[in-house]
Specification:
The chain has 348 residues and is of the alpha+beta class. It is built from 4 helices and 20 strands. Helix 3 packs antiparallel against helix 4.
Length: 348
């Protein structure tokens, strides 16, 4: 009787042993104990970090519209200018005199129209005479407007808050029509040119959120959206530019200020528990899945982003396939397995 009790006890101990230890289960040709979780589609939040510099959001080229001598240029290369600020003043005397002449001519033309209409009513002028007078009045008015524009163009002012990127005009020089005088870079808003590693090219998109911290303003956070993405990767640095648009109403963010950006991306992706992936950083990442016959099948997968305890699976798995998350390192392809814990995906 005692021998029977001992035999039962030993058998129970052996059964418990092979159910909990893979090596012992394999020795007695029993199914290998594993734990699984299903491959699950979930939201993946990605943070992409990149260093970069502040750049003007757009260039503004200012050209001469009249021929005149340059009197003053009160700004220099690198100057910060506000909207309406004077950039260059040209000699206005010729254009003031021309405007006065055109205004006198216009007044004469208006009076001539009135005289011709009076004569027509009295029968001393034909309708054609009145029409010709009106044409002359219209031409004279156009000349007044042109003279006003020419006079206004003897002063050049900034159209936006900006930095002077180039200046090619000096006092005493004569301007030429369409000659470039200044190039400005708009500073409100500015763009943060983040140099993103080429392996993130598929994760960056227009409109994604960006947070920027700069070396010049420690502890201050600037937020914006990605407005522009370079179409090419720099062959030397293997990076591409992602440009975050930042409001800069006080113009304190200057051109070439350095900093660091974090781009925030969100997307739905097929994921598994990161510990399920064998050789995750090698050339051939694999997982074990459990098929309907209770056998472990090795599956090569293409992995993507890893966030927290989740790894994105780009190819090689389908949603809801049971993936071995505990015990996979002691498995061989086609092993019989016994799933002793199958749990839903932890979404926390």
């Amino acid at each position: 009787m005692l021998a029977l009790v001992v035999l039962v006890f030993v058998a129970a101990a052996l059964l418990r042993l092979v159910r909990t230890k893979q090596v012992d289960a394999r020795l007695v040709n029993q199914p290998i104990p594993v734990q699984t979780m299903p491959a699950t589609v979930k939201e993946v939040n990605e943070l992409i970090g990149a260093s970069g510099t502040i750049q003007p959001s757009m260039p503004v080229t200012l050209t001469a519209k009249v021929v005149a001598q340059v009197l003053t240029v009160p700004v220099d290369l690198g100057s910060i200018v506000r909207p309406g600020q004077l950039l260059v003043e040209l000699d206005p005397r010729l254009y003031q005199a021309n405007l006065t002449s055109m205004q006198v001519t216009y007044e004469h033309a208006k009076n001539q129209v009135a005289r011709e209409e009076t004569l027509r009513r009295k029968g001393f002028a034909a309708e054609m005479d009145v029409e010709n007078a009106r044409v002359a009045e219209a031409i004279a008015y156009a000349q007044v407007v042109s003279a006003q524009i020419d006079l206004a163009n003897t002063t050049l002012r900034s159209s936006a808050p900006a930095v002077v990127l180039s200046r090619s005009v000096n006092p005493g020089e004569m301007t030429r029509v369409d000659e470039q005088l200044f190039q400005l870079g708009v500073l409100d808003p500015v763009l943060f040119d983040a140099a993103v590693s080429e392996d993130k090219i598929g994760a960056v998109h227009l409109g994604m959120e960006g947070e920027v911290r700069t070396d010049a303003f420690q502890g201050e956070l600037f937020s914006g959206l990605v407005q522009k993405i370079d179409s090419q990767v720099d062959p030397t640095t293997r990076t591409f530019g992602a440009y975050v648009r930042l409001a800069n109403p006080d113009l304190k963010l200057k051109k070439d200020v350095t900093g660091y950006a974090r781009l925030k991306g969100q997307r739905m992706a097929l994921t598994v528990l990161s510990t399920a992936v064998v050789n995750p950083v090698g050339d051939h990442a694999t997982v074990f899945i459990v098929d309907g016959d209770g056998r472990a099948k090795i599956r090569e997968v293409h992995t993507g982003l890893t966030v927290g305890n989740a790894t994105e699976i780009l190819s090689g798995l389908d949603e809801n396939e049971q993936v071995v998350v505990v015990g996979q390192f002691g498995l061989h392809d086609n092993d019989r397995v016994r799933v002793n814990q199958s749990a839903p995906w932890n979404k926390s």
